[in-house]
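Re: export button greyed out
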Amino acid sequence: MRTFFISGTGTEIGKTLVTTILLRQIRMAKKPVEAIKPIITGFDENNLYKTDTAMILNELGREVSKDNIDQISPWRFKEAISPNLAADSEGRSLIVEKVAAFCKSKMHRDQILLIEGIGGGMVPLNDTETVLDLIAKVGAPIVLVVGSYLGTLSHTLTAFQAVSHYGIKIAGVVISESYKSPVSLIETQRTLSKFRNQFPFVILPRIKDIKEFTDVPCIASELGIL
Ligand SMILES: Nc1ncnc2c1ncn2[C@@H]1O[C@H](COP(=O)(O)OP(=O)(O)OP(=O)(O)O)[C@@H](O)[C@H]1O
Ligand SMILES: [Mg+2]
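Workaround output, generated via the alternate export path:
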């Protein structure tokens, strides 16, 4: 049983892209794999196909049905804002223990489990807890997705400090090339790996056709998942 929590330095950084690429590569290697996105905001029942949940179900080869959505994303909120505020706006609140218990219920022997987080690691889930509290309770290592934009070095090193504070392990970092990034991916990788050398730093260049996944490096192998 191996579980990886796909987190990132922020929202829209590439977590879903990395989750779907890993799913495809693990499935191509004929290894059993499951993926969940337990909490999702900005969830529009009338436009399901653009949601992270639908992208994960598509990659798993499952129908985007109410039952299948419930199985991987039980906590869904309408507003596209942070989970604590989205829950507040519906008069609800997120109980981190319950979300962690759901994640653990999806861990099975001989199966790789990928859990996509929400936003960045320090996004609040309620008045006192963040995504990192959830990850610590699940007890899984993080695959940290970061960008290559100007500013990513500071964001990534700050994320390392926060993750260490919670006693969470990092399985590896994926540097996903940001749109029109002025900074070299290799230089970003080289700089970051000087600060931490206990885990791999994997480069994911801009992907032209996401559906085809052509020229995508085998990040599952590079991260040691396969
Ligand atoms: N290396 C890349 N090549 C091409 N497109 C990318 C790359 N990295 C990210 N993107 C694009 O950036 C957008 C945001 O990525 P994605 O949806 O994976 O982010 P996210 O971290 O899951 O966001 P959220 O916080 O909303 O869950 C998507 O359109 C995605 O395809
Ligand atoms: Mg996402």
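The pocket of adenosine-5'-triphosphate (ligand 1) is lined by residues 8, 11-17, 52, 119, 176-177, 204, 206-207, 210 (CB under 6 Å). The button fix ships in the next patch.
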